[in-house]
Specification:
With 438 residues, the protein is α/β, with parallel strands linked by helices. The chain contains 19 helices and 12 strands.
């Protein structure tokens, strides 16, 4: 059995060495990094099964490292800090950390048990049926799972389309896992300036440009034998599109600054929120690349078109977020689920996760979650409300809570007309239970 490798990112040498020695004594392989940038380079270059990172580091802090790591591939990520600031804890959970620990912690007990649980959970989830990770009971969700199962084991390039935040990355990971290929490398075309995209994808030789002090393989070479996920492909510059087409069709590339052709065996999966057919018609996107990427298409519908999935999605997300926060998942009332289904969710699954994370942060752990808990979380995340509007909305939500979710009783308590209640409620972006007055 392969020994799990843990990357320890810690700028204090003594702490880094102490953690490394303890982990090696427990049977792990350990890589050390003195800051976030060094850790990211080691993560890109070597096999890593789990990342353990301090929050406060020079050049790139722990949260920045977490976000960068998640864009490359999914591994368990444990973040720690001597100061457990609520904003850092919230963002760590939102960005995908499996656990946040307050330093100092007990290595032999708390840290090692957290690592063991994280690695075990990651291994068990990897063996689960990949297509079933796209949750939902709607016909649309079942159709997406059916296409994942059908296309996963093929070599076809698949274009995954849908609005921002619908879960296109979940579909891509499921397609990759169904294929049995390894590894998976992911890259969002919008992440880098146009001048750096070619080197990131195809690699570069030493001296190819200022700062290229050593040769480095690109993502195509790193994904050899596996899958390369190109996110937001519709935003690829036109010059890059021609080079992508050539590599995908020939299976050969040349690094920036190098003349030797290198063969790669890579399955390309791509995703976009854009209407690529319209972009082809206007000349913004190459027709030949479009057809090469679109050997098959999976359309991921927005949440507003599959509201019946919100019960399953909401419950699963609450369990996952609660587990990551080290707390028991709250009980959920039927009215809470009704309120979930009533929301428009323009940000789709990404917005849903953010709001439910906020629900858990405000939950006091006593009563089952109700509609007021959802509205309070949405209010906490609303950026555009002025002081007066926020105060009034908070009063409305509190009255709604005191009235047990009865809008009419809450309206009367605040002495608002029905028209004023409806106007302000919807102006604040809240969509209460259908069929209730006012």
């Amino acid at each position: 059995m392969t020994t799990s490798c843990i990357l320890v990112a810690e700028d204090q040498t003594a702490t880094r060495e102490r953690l490394g020695d303890a982990l090696r004594a427990s049977g792990f392989d350990v890589l050390g990094a003195a800051d976030g940038e060094e850790a990211l380079e080691r993560f890109r270059a070597e096999r890593v099964d789990l990342v353990l990172s301090d929050q406060r580091m020079p050049r790139l802090d722990g949260l920045g490292l977490l976000r960068a790591v998640r864009r490359i591939r999914e591994v368990p990520f444990i973040l720690y800090s001597s100061e457990a600031e609520s904003d850092v804890v919230f963002r760590a959970g939102r960005y995908g950390a499996v656990r946040f620990l307050e330093y100092p912690f007990r290595v032999e007990g708390q840290l090692l048990s957290t690592i063991a649980e994280s690695l075990e959970r990651n291994a068990s989830s990897a063996t689960a049926r990949a297509a079933e990770r796209f949750l939902g009971v709607s016909a649309a969700a079942r159709r997406v799972r059916r296409m994942i199962r059908r296309l996963g084991a093929t070599r076809a390039s698949v274009l995954v389309v849908g609005e921002t935040g619908v879960g296109k990355d979940v579909v891509v990971r499921a397609l990759h896992e169904e294929s049995g290929r390894a590894p998976l490398r992911s890259f969002a075309v919008t992440e880098l300036a146009e001048t750096l995209l070619e080197a990131e994808l195809f690699g570069h030789e030493r001296g190819a440009f200022t700062g290229a002090v050593a040769s480095r393989p690109g993502l195509f070479e790193q994904a050899h034998g596996g899958t390369l996920f190109l996110d937001e492909i519709g935003d690829a510059p036109h010059a890059l599109q021609a080079k992508l087409l050539r590599v995908i069709e020939t299976g050969e590339l040349r690094r920036v600054g190098g003349g030797q052709a290198r063969s790669v065996d890579v399955r390309v999966l791509a995703a976009t929120h854009r209407d690529l057919e319209a972009d082809v018609d206007t000349g913004r996107f190459r027709r030949d690349l479009f057809y090469r990427l679109r050997q098959a298409v999976i359309h991921v519908p927005p949440l507003r078109e599959r509201s019946e999935d919100l019960d399953v999605l909401g419950a699963a997300m609450l369990r996952e977020l609660a587990e990551r926060a080290g707390m028991q998942a709250p009980a959920v009332s039927a009215a809470f689920l009704d309120a979930l289904r009533a929301q428009p969710w323009p940000g789709n699954v990404r917005e849903l996760r953010s709001v439910l994370q906020s629900v858990l942060l405000w939950w006091e752990g006593e009563e089952p979650l109700g509609p007021a808990d959802l509205f309070e979380a949405q209010l906490a995340l609303a950026p555009a409300l002025g002081t007066g509007d926020r105060f009034l909305c908070q009063r409305m939500v509190e009255a709604f809570r005191r009235a047990g979710g009865n809008q009419e009783a809450a309206r009367r308590e605040l002495d608002l007309t029905r028209a004023a209640w409806r106007y302000r409620w919807r102006r604040f972006g809240l969509c209460p239970l259908a069929g209730q007055r006012p």
